[in-house]
Structure formats: C-alpha cells, structure tokens
C-alpha cells in the first residue's frame, strides 16, 4: 500500500529536524520508506522536490548546504523553526473558545475539542464563560450537505474537483469542473467560490444544489487564487441585498417571514393575503420561488416572468 503523502511529509520533516548535519538526497532516500518505494531516480527526485516545496510552503525553514566535496545536503534547524510563546488575554481566549464551539459536525468536533483544551491552558476559564449571560443564543454552523467535507479538503489541498450541479432554472444537473477557493456559510446555506473551468470565470455554487459525489481531479490550478474571496458579497448581490429597485408582491398571511423582515412597506389585503414592497436585485426571482404558492409577484413584469420561468422549470423536473 502506498504511503500517504501527509505521512511522507511528516517523516521528511522529522528527519530534517532531527539531524545535526545536512543530509544528502541519497541519505534521505535510504532513510525514508516512501522514497525507497520510488521506482527510479527520476521518480524519487520529482517526489523529493515536491515534498521539499510543500514543507517550505507550510512554513518549515529548510536550509540547503554544500559540503567540501560539492555535495548538496538539507536540514531544518530547530532554532529556525521554533515558534515564540503564544499568550492570550481573557477576551482573546474567550473569542477563540466561542469560535471552537460553533463547529458541530463530527469531522471537526475532535479538532475543536482539542483546540478548546489548549485554549484552557492559554487562559480560557474552566468554569467561567464570558458568554454565559447570553447562553440562550447558542452559535451553530449547520452542515447537512454531503459535498461539504470533500470540498473543504479540496479547498485546503488546492485540488480541482468535478460535480453535478443543478441550477435553480434547470430541470437537470450538469457537470461542473471547478478549482475550489473557499467555503462560506451565509444565512444558513453553504456556498463554494471557485474558478469554473467550463465557463472560464469565477463562480459561486450553493452546496445544496450539488447532486451526487464530489470527485477529485489531478493536476494543479490553472487560474490564480485571489487574495480575498468575497463569497458573502457575491451571494448577497445575487439575493438582492444590494438592490436599487423595488418589487411588489402578494404574500400569504402568516408566511414568508424572511420576506416580511426585508419589506419596506406592508399592506393588508384581506382574504389571507398581504401586499409587500421589497428591495429588488439580481437573484430575487430565485429566492421568491422558494416560497412556492405563498408568493405572487405583482410587478415589475420582468421579475414576474423570471419567477414563472423558474416555476415551470421546477414543474418539468
């Protein structure tokens, strides 16, 4: 069985940190089982160079030293790779403790629990919680989509993926080849931002619309990852958060509370219906469709037509 890359990197790091003198490629190959399994010198050299670059990218300081015979050796001095003591005041520790409590899914529960134990040692009180007075509000980040975990790992490892995605206006899902950048939760829904290879542009995908399995693909990214990925801002603009117009809708009494919260005007019509004026921006039609028969669009005409088209697409599916 091939040795996992993470284990190989860990073994190489320990080997470079544990030596008192520079080790040559030959010595490293003889010391690590994963390198012994390399089929040829070229295969080993490529593997070693990739591993060395990965460790440096992770922050390990690896020195390259040439001895008197002209042979190149490598080592990672402990004093160059030692972190300074990390101290947290009570407020900083409490903030990180609150963040660790947010995660509830099994994949991250163990890591969050371990982080909390370390935070206790760094100053987070054992029996006094600064947020206890507000304990009625318990933070949660729900994750129900099966696509979350493989996409989280793909974002971390910078690995292209392919998945089937059903747009709100489409009756059937279509394959999408994506270079994943970041995941973010917005109003209870998870979104993925990345580079859509099929369309040659940045796109944001709602995880609940991904069908089937997320499959990894070989090779690296072809597009540059931006320094800041604005997932929330992009989704907010699609959802009408940056609207500069208004729309009039009829809403069934007692329904559509998110729409009522955004309404700039509400008028009772009687017979179980209210009339609302709400901000209108790109993506509002997709949001209105989610309320089904509880919403009727009055104006503008283009919004009404878009909603009708989406409902027809859903009916055909």
State the gist of this model.
The chain has helices at 5-18, 25-31, 33-36, 41-57, 90-102, 106-121, 148-157, 231-238, 257-262, 284-289, 301-316; strands at residues 23-24, 63-66, 72-75, 161-165, 174-186, 189-196, 201-206, 210-216, 245-252, 265-270, 273-280, 295-299. By secondary structure, the chain is of the alpha+beta class.
The multimeric state of the shown protein is single chain
User: Secondary-structure element order, as H and E?
Assistant: HEHHHEEHHHEEEEEHEHEEHEH
What's the average pLDDT?
81
SS content category? alpha+beta
Q: Using only CA atoms, what is the Rg?
A: 27 Å
Strand order in the largest sheet? 7-6-5-4-8
Number of strands: 12
**Sheet of most strands:** 5 strands, antiparallel
Q: What's the N-to-C terminus distance?
A: 44 Å
Number of helices: 11
Low-confidence stretches: 133-137
The fraction of residues assigned to DSSP E strands is 15-25%
Q: Layout of helices and strands, plus pairs?
A:
Elements: H1 5-18, E1 23-24, H2 25-31, H3 33-36, H4 41-57, E2 63-66, E3 72-75, H5 90-102, H6 106-121, H7 148-157, E4 161-165, E5 174-186, E6 189-196, E7 201-206, E8 210-216, H8 231-238, E9 245-252, H9 257-262, E10 265-270, E11 273-280, H10 284-289, E12 295-299, H11 301-316
Antiparallel strand pairs: 1-3, 2-3, 4-5, 4-8, 5-6, 6-7, 9-11, 9-12, 10-11
Helix pairs in contact: 1-4, 5-6
What does this structure look like?
The chain is of the alpha+beta class. It has 11 helices and 12 strands. A 5-stranded antiparallel β-sheet has the order 7-6-5-4-8. The protein has a 4-stranded antiparallel β-sheet with strand order 10-11-9-12. Strands 1-3-2 form a 3-stranded antiparallel β-sheet. Strand 6 (189-196) and strand 7 (201-206) form a beta hairpin. The longest helix is centred in the first third of the chain and has 17 residues, at 41-57. It starts with a helix and ends with a helix. The relative contact order is 0.07.
């Amino acid at each position: 069985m091939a040795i996992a890359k993470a284990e190989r990197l860990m073994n190489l790091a320990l080997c470079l940190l544990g030596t008192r003198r520079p080790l040559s490629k030959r010595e490293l190959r003889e010391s690590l089982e994963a390198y012994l399994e390399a089929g040829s010198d070229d295969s080993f050299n490529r593997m070693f160079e990739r591993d060395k670059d990965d460790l440096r990218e992770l922050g390990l300081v690896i020195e390259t030293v040439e001895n008197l015979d002209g042979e190149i050796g490598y080592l990672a001095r402990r004093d160059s790779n030692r972190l300074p003591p990390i101290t947290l005041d009570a407020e900083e520790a409490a903030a990180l403790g609150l963040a660790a409590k947010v995660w509830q899914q099994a994949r991250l529960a163990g890591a969050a629990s371990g982080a909390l134990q370390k935070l206790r040692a760094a100053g987070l009180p054992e029996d006094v919680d600064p947020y206890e007075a507000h304990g009625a509000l318990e933070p949660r980040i729900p994750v129900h989509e099966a696509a979350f975990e493989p996409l989280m790992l793909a974002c971390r490892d910078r690995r292209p993926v392919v998945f089937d995605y059903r747009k709100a206006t489409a009756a059937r899902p279509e394959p999408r080849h994506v270079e994943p950048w970041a995941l973010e939760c917005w109003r209870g829904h998870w979104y993925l931002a990345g580079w859509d290879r099929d369309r040659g542009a940045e796109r944001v995908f709602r995880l609940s619309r991904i069908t089937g399995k997320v499959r990894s693909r070989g090779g690296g990214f072809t597009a540059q990852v931006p320094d800041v990925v604005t997932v929330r801002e992009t989704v907010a603009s699609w959802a009408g958060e940056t609207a500069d117009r208004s729309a009039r809708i009829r809403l069934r009494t007692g329904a559509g509370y998110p729409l009522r919260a955004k309404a700039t005007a509400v008028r009772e019509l009687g017979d179980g219906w209210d009339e609302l004026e709400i901000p209108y921006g790109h993506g509002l039609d997709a949001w209105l469709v989610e309320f089904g028969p509880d919403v009727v669009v009055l104006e503008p005409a283009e919004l009404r037509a878009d909603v009708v088209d989406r409902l027809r697409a859903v009916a055909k599916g």
